[in-house]
Design a protein that fits this description.
Blueprint lengths: L1 H15 L12 E7 L4 H12 L4 E8 L5 H8 L4 E3 L11 H13 L4 E4 L8 H6 L4 E5 L11 H8 L3 E8 L9 E8 L6 H24 L3 E4 L2 E4 L6
Parallel strand pairs: 1-2, 1-4, 2-3, 4-5
Antiparallel strand pairs: 5-6, 6-7, 8-9
Helix pairs in contact: 2-7
The chain binds 5-O-phosphono-beta-D-ribofuranosylamine (GRF).
């Protein structure tokens, strides 16, 4: 009886947090990856899937840029990859495009979406289709330096440490709940290119780790905060 009560509390408590991944021990989460550029983070994610450190498989890669390197990288790995029309706006998907992107992902059975250098803002319908299941990586310690070329912003500002943030995506620009962060020191002789290169090395480790924590349910979202799930706790 006590045990049943605890189980009930457990499931009710979970309902307040993000839905647990509910993966069977060996079931792999189906991941969609969206990109606009070269796709080195996609490569790191795909490598982690193959290595088994990320319990997922990349089911579909979508790009808004027809010749984005991420599409070629995916094709080389035998992963389905497509360019889809982003619609009439420059910085976001329009409503028609958003519906088409959601449908493509749903048709591929995608459960979680990872943005990997995707240069458009996702709004209502897309985020409602994957509630608390769209993740992004940003090349700074948010909330410092949101937006474009965050490594250049950090150099221009003169900070001594910048870094990497993995966060869930909400309606804002780089404002969603933070899943994990790592610091990168700024060197006296850094250029924008050298700093971005060191940031990317950290990204390639942090992004698969953070995704694994999310899809396995070891990290839960609680309002603005994310926390380590305590085994057996509500
Ligand atoms: C990364 O620096 C990422 O943080 C930012 O865009 C860049 C994408 O790089 N969002 P890549 O296409 O994954 O190599």
């Amino acid at each position: 009886m006590v045990r049943r009560f605890r189980l009930l509390c457990l499931s009710l408590g979970r309902g307040l947090l993000t839905r647990p991944a509910r993966v069977g021990e060996n079931r792999k989460i189906r991941l969609g990856v969206l990109g606009s550029g070269k796709g080195s983070n996609f490569g790191a994610i795909a490598d982690a899937c193959v290595a088994g450190t990320l319990s997922a498989e990349v089911a579909l890669v979508l790009a808004d840029v027809p010749d984005a390197g991420i599409l070629q990288r995916a094709t080389e790995r035998g992963i389905p990859a497509r360019h889809l029309d982003p619609g009439r706006y420059r910085t976001r998907l329009d409503e028609t495009a958003e519906a088409a992107w959601v449908k493509a992902l749903q048709d591929a059975g995608v459960e979680w979406v990872a943005l990997a250098g995707f240069m458009r803002i996702l709004k209502g319908a897309f985020l409602r289709a994957f509630p608390l299941r769209v993740v992004n990586i940003h090349p700074s310690l948010l909330p410092s330096f949101p937006g474009l070329e965050a490594w250049r912003q950090a150099l221009d500002y003169g900070v001594k440490h910048t870094g990497v943030t993995v966060h869930l995506v909400d309606q804002g620009v780089d404002t969603g709940p933070i899943v994990n962060q790592a610091t990168v020191p700024v060197r006296d002789d850094d250029t924008p290119a050298s700093l971005h290169a060191r940031i990317q090395e950290v990204e390639h480790r942090l992004y698969p780790e953070a995704l694994q924590a999310l899809v396995s349910g070891t990290v839960r979202v609680d309002g603005r905060r994310t926390r380590q799930a305590v085994p057996g706790a509500a």
